[in-house]
Design goal:
Layout (H helix, E strand, L loop, with lengths): L1 H7 L1 H67 L1 H8 L3 H15 L3 E5 L5 E4 L14 H9 L3 E8 H7 L1 H7 L1 E2 L13 E2 L1 E13 L2 E11 L4 H12 L3 E2 L2 E2 L1 E7 L2 E5 L16 H9 L4 E7 L2 E11 L5 E10 H52 L14 H69 L6 H24 L8 E3 L1 H13 L7 E6 L7 E3 L1 H18 L4 E10 L4 E8 L6 H4 L19 H11 L3 E7 L3 E9 L2
Helix pairs in contact: 2-8, 2-10, 6-7, 10-11, 11-12, 12-16, 13-14, 14-16
Bound molecules: adenosine-5'-triphosphate and magnesium ion.
The site of magnesium ion has 5 residues, from helix 14.
């Protein structure tokens, strides 16, 4: 069904090809478009995460600076300087407790210049132990300047501050796929934000004020960052933004949640990220599966005052946020394409219809013609040049066919008319001739006998007239019988050129032919033709006599033979340069007794006989003539 439709209908083909183009182009632009959108959205996402990472790092640094300034300021206050100088432990203990509560520190200590603890805000009784190995204490002792930053505190040191702090900071390592292996099931140190400042009296360093915030399990601390950077944006009830602090590769404080919605503390980062950020000190931004969901993630190293990497800072945005944007943009894009196709479809149909309309009209017209209904194609005012040309050519063709058909029909009608008329005339004439023939034979026999008996008498001349006129009658009767002869001709294979030649040779001896030039234009390759030779000689002689009669002042008689192999027949043409035949006589030429010649000169049987003979040879005879110029008879005989 479809292949035959394709073969038959130009319009269908055009529509299908156009649709194909539209669909292919649509799909192509869809693929390219989605790729571009995807790329842009992902780029936008990573850019935004990179920004968030920058903002979070800045916030973290600001926090450190703020703590540093607080500690620096407090270290300069008169009461702390005085109490430190006086080694007034009870006063310092009370003061440090107040500072701890007011500024949200977990640890506040005053350390002697040699590194031993003077007083602890958390524990009045624990003092005198040496903390000179603490990096920040070391730094202040060396540089006599304030110091602040990230650091690490071991569990035994935290325990000196208080059991509750040690318990609060304990973290159980959760085995995470794709992460590094850990030998210990618990983390025995804590990530700490530290600030230390020298206490001077009269230019001499008399102690160090030291304060720290423990970051392990410090939800408040990390949630504040997240709030500041990501606000409270949620998708399907889940927080869009997340931030985390790592100690090594372990999450010590985070708002990334696991599948049960618990903070994923103790889980690890993948080994890939760990290597890049922790070991190589680079920033890592990309898509990562974090604990339970996909995040567009950013990690950067977290360093201490000496530039040593202790852990990592992480921010992430739920990938779903961008997936939704991607989905929406893609949908919009898809919609645009579909609408375009929907518009293109009727538009192309309309255009195809408009351009193929002339073709449709021609197809309709040809179908009509095949049914015999000839009519030209109408050219419409808005038809283009090509359509006009096609229509003009087609209309010319229609007219030519019509004209030809009309001619053929006329010819056929005339031929039928002629042959029917001649046949009925022939029947009538031969009937009469038969009847007359016998009495005529009697009259001739007796008039001949009578002429013998009456020779030399005064009746001789009268009887002679009777006999001669009877002879003339018999000649006429014979002619009629020749014309209407019903018996088949005695055919044998004959050389047409030879038969014609022999006939002409006899005539050339006749005196009347002296003024007439006879031209033989014979075809050489003529095959033998089935002929009744004597009858055909009569045909040639009748035509020749007529031609000579038509050329009283002389002229030229040309006899031509030709082979029409394609049509399977031979042609004999007899053309003269005589007076010609007026058009009104043309239709009557082959009728018996039609003559224009004087009485006694012609009986009008010559062409009737020719017609009869040719017909019995299954041939045709035609005549063309122009008055004053000449006449040409054409005989066509079949080869078989
Ligand atoms: N070659 C020709 N040129 C001009 N007119 C011709 C020619 N052949 C025939 N005719 C016309 O056709 C008529 C009929 O010819 P057809 O041969 O039948 O009779 P005819 O010649 O008049 O008499 P018949 O042949 O019986 O002696 C002629 O009288 C003549 O008018
Ligand atoms: Mg004649």
């Amino acid at each position: 069904m479809i292949p035959s439709l394709l073969r038959s209908n130009i319009r269908f083909k055009l529509v299908v090809s156009l649709l194909l183009i539209v669909v292919v182009m649509g799909t192509l632009s869809l693929i390219v478009g989605i790729r571009i959108i995807n790329k842009n959205v992902i780029r936008e996402a990573t850019d935004s995460v990179r920004n968030s990472l920058g903002a979070t790092t800045e916030l973290y640094d600001e926090e450190v600076q703020k703590r540093s300034r607080i500690v620096e300021y407090l270290a300069k206050t008169a009461e702390i300087v005085r109490a430190t100088a006086d080694r007034d432990r009870p006063f310092l203990f009370a003061k440090l407790a107040q500072i701890k509560a007011e500024f949200g520190f977990d640890i506040v200590n005053v350390v002697n210049p040699d590194g031993s603890i003077l007083v602890r805000a958390n524990n009045f009784d624990a003092w005198g132990d040496n903390v000179a190995n603490y990096r920040y204490i070391q730094w202040v002792m060396r540089n006599k300047k304030p110091a602040a930053g990230t650091g690490i505190l071991g569990q035994e040191n935290i325990r000196k501050e208080g059991k509750d702090l040690a318990e609060r900071t304990i973290i159980h390592v959760v085995r995470t796929p794709l992460a590094r292996a850990h030998e210990s099931p618990t983390l025995n140190e804590a990530l700490v934000m530290k600030a230390a400042s020298p206490i001077f009296e009269n230019g001499e360093m008399i102690g160090i004020l030291y304060a720290a915030i423990l970051l392990n399990n410090n939800d408040q601390f990390i949630d504040r960052f997240k709030r500041l950077v990501f606000k409270e944006e949620r998708i399907d009830g889940r927080e869009v933004g997340a931030s985390t602090l790592f100690l090594g590769d372990i999450r010590v404080t985070t708002n990334v949640v696991d599948t049960q919605g618990r903070r994923a503390i103790g889980t690890q980062v993948s080994e890939e990220v760990y290597k890049k950020v922790y070991e190589e000190g680079q920033t890592w931004v990309g898509q990562a599966f974090v604990v339970a969901s996909w995040y567009i993630s950013g990690y950067c190293p977290l360093r201490d005052i000496d530039g040593r990497i202790l852990g990592m800072l992480y921010v992430g945005v739920l990938k779903e946020k961008f997936d939704a944007a991607l989905r929406n943009t893609t949908l919009l894009f898809l919609l645009v394409i579909v609408v375009t196709v929907l518009i293109a479809l009727p538009l192309s149909l309309f255009l195809i219809n408009a351009t193929t309309k002339p073709v449709q009209r021609i197809i309709a017209a040809t179908t009509d013609i095949a049914r015999g209904d000839y009519h030209p194609i109408v050219v419409l005012p808005h038809d283009d040049d090509d359509a006009r040309k096609i229509a003009a050519g087609f209309n010319a063709m229609v007219m030519a066919i019509e004209e030809r058909d009309r001619k053929i029909q006329d010819q056929a009608e005339r031929t039928i008319l002629k042959s029917e008329k001649l046949a009925s005339l022939g029947r009538l004439a031969s009937g009469i001739a038969h009847e007359i023939n016998n009495p005529l034979t009697g009259v001739l026999t007796f008039s001949s006998l009578l002429l013998g008996d009456l020779a030399g008498t005064k009746y001789e001349e009268d009887v002679k007239v009777i006999r001669d006129e009877t002879l003339r009658c018999r000649k006429i009767v014979r002619g009629i019988l020749d014309f209407a002869r019903e018996n088949e001709p005695q055919k044998s294979a004959a050389d047409l050129n030879e038969v014609i030649g022999e006939t002409l040779a006899i005539f050339e001896k006749n005196v009347t032919f002296h003024n007439v030039e006879i031209v033989r234009d014979f075809a050489r390759d003529l095959p033998p033709v089935q002929l009744d030779i004597s009858q055909f000689k009569q045909v040639i002689s009748n035509l020749a006599v007529n031609a000579v009669d038509a050329m009283p002042k002389g002229g030229r008689l040309t006899l031509t033979t030709a082979l029409d192999r394609a049509a399977g027949r031979v042609e004999v043409r007899a053309a003269d340069t005589g007076v010609g035949i007026p058009p009104e006589n043309m239709s009557r030429l082959f009728e018996p007794f039609f003559t224009t010649k004087d009485r006694g000169k012609g009986t009008g049987l010559g062409l009737a006989v020719v017609y009869g003979i040719i017909k019995r040879h299954n041939g045709t005879i035609d005549v063309r003539s122009k008055t004053g110029e000449g006449t040409e008879f054409t005989i066509r005989l079949p080869l078989v």
